[in-house]
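Changelog note: in this version the structure field was regenerated for every chain. One regenerated record is shown below for reference.
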Amino acid sequence: YSNLLNAEKKQLNMKSSIICCILATVLLSLCVFNADAGLRKPKKLTPELEAKFEVLTAWIAYRLNLKHAKEACVGEYGFSDELATNLVKIKVANPSDREKCYVNCLYNKLVFYKDDAINKQAMKESLYEIVGEQRLLNIVDGCLNAGGTNACDKVYKFHACASPEFDKVRSDIFLPDE
């Protein structure tokens, strides 16, 4: 039963990756090509659309990296997909040390935690186009002293501090234009 469940998860993950790629391709096609002409004449993106496209592209790249990190860490820790998602979303009351180490695993796979410290440079390289450099630095700097008694606890407390701020960024990105 476990092998069947893992195969179904892999198939679902592959489908979600394909859907993300198709969505990006469709968005690019809609932005770049003039659909009315029928000849697919290239059209220059407005600066606003170009900026949105860059953010969307960076978002998709980050989500794919996170997906691969999650798959590796779920495999390592043997957690259910639901528990893993709830840990990342800070929805687990009083997480165990092992559960905190799962979040640490993600940060290590994403290279957001390296040499016993939050890796600001890696976070900047991965997230600045999505979050904006100054906003990212404000979030990271504001959470660096969140505490922690060991590496897993330190990363989890940093994540618990930063996650609500990153959720606000995600809401800003995906709100419809007014």
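Spot check on this record: The helical segments are 2-32, 47-77, 81-88, 97-109, 120-131, 133-143, 151-174. DSSP finds seven helices and two strands in the chain.
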